Amino acid sequence: MADNKVEFINIKVSEIAPNPEQPRKFFSEEAQEELTNSIKENGLLQPVVVRPVEGAKVPYMLIAGERRWRSCQAAGLEVIPAKVVEGATEEEAYVLSIAENVNRADMTIMEEAGAYADLKAAGWTPVKIAKQFGKTETHITWRLGLLTLRPEVAEMVDQGQIKNNLAWHIAQLNPANQMVAAMRYVRGDFDSEAEAQHFANGLKMMEQQTSLTNEKAPTAEEQEKQKKAKAKAKDGLGKAEEVLIPLLEELAEKKPEDLAVILGDDLARHLRVVGRLYAKVQMVRNLLSKAQGIQRAMAEEFNKAAVEVQQEAAAAKKTAARAKPEAKAEKPEAKTAGKPQSTAKKAAPKPATKPEARTATGTRAPARRTPAKKAEAAVK
Fold this sequence. Notes:
Layout: E1 5-12, E2 16-17, H1 29-42, E3 48-52, E4 60-64, H2 66-75, E5 79-86, H3 90-101, H4 109-121, H5 126-133, H6 137-145, H7 151-158, H8 164-171, H9 175-186, H10 193-208, H11 220-252, H12 256-263, H13 267-347, H14 349-361, H15 369-379
Parallel strand pairs: 2-4, 3-5
Antiparallel strand pairs: 1-5, 3-4
């Protein structure tokens, strides 16, 4: 890009087209209106950056400054100052566009991640990207890691509902758990962002392991050990509440000048011990917060499994309910098939005599005529 020819000229606004590959897709309407009002009052103070494009409908395409170009249109300007970079390739123009926007507050974190991903797809390594834009390699890697977020969660990140660091931890989860962690954080289930991170990490552990607890029931010996460890922890915590906390509360009520006199030569020792306590408390608090995250993740997994069991039971119940009417429908068919047969047997003798007699005479025939016919048949 250093060999490209650069010149500053005035160009008609209508002769400039926006770059379809612009890394920034979101433009704040409020900020855009403020910029438009500023341009109306003071004109365009910073030129847009463009490059010539041969064979296009308009002769120039924006490299950087789309917000300014839009506001100039809204302000009714016909001609604006522009920095023309000749000979820039599409990749060089894209890099310039990213450099223009990457450090701006109004470029969203997901837009930044997408821009780095485009460069990575073009063969750039995270190290090269970091060097180009004055970032650390870790920064680039973490941004790229956000691209696994499902669209709903990515939108929460773009809107500022979820902070960048927590977003990365959520991005490590499968899509279903991403939604669980994001929704619980947004609705305020956690006291801090750190608690939400620990919960997300707990969900990740659940994904990587079939179970955080032994599938087999603990033995009597293991149960006894757990019982003793719990009692010991409870006893130690009770001592802290009885002795240590009241002591610290008593010291906290004093003024610094009073403590200087009261503690005397022992002041340095108090300061040293309290410092050690503070470090340990911070460490243990963080440890307990992680444990709470795992516990919450286990509860979430248990609830999810319980819901699945309920759904399976409900599905089985529906299947059984659908099968019962079919079984009932089969029984009437069997009865219907049986009844006509018995009716046919009973009715069979009747058509053989009475209907024939009625057809011949129109009235009932005498009973003696039947035996006479039989006698004639016997003689023959």
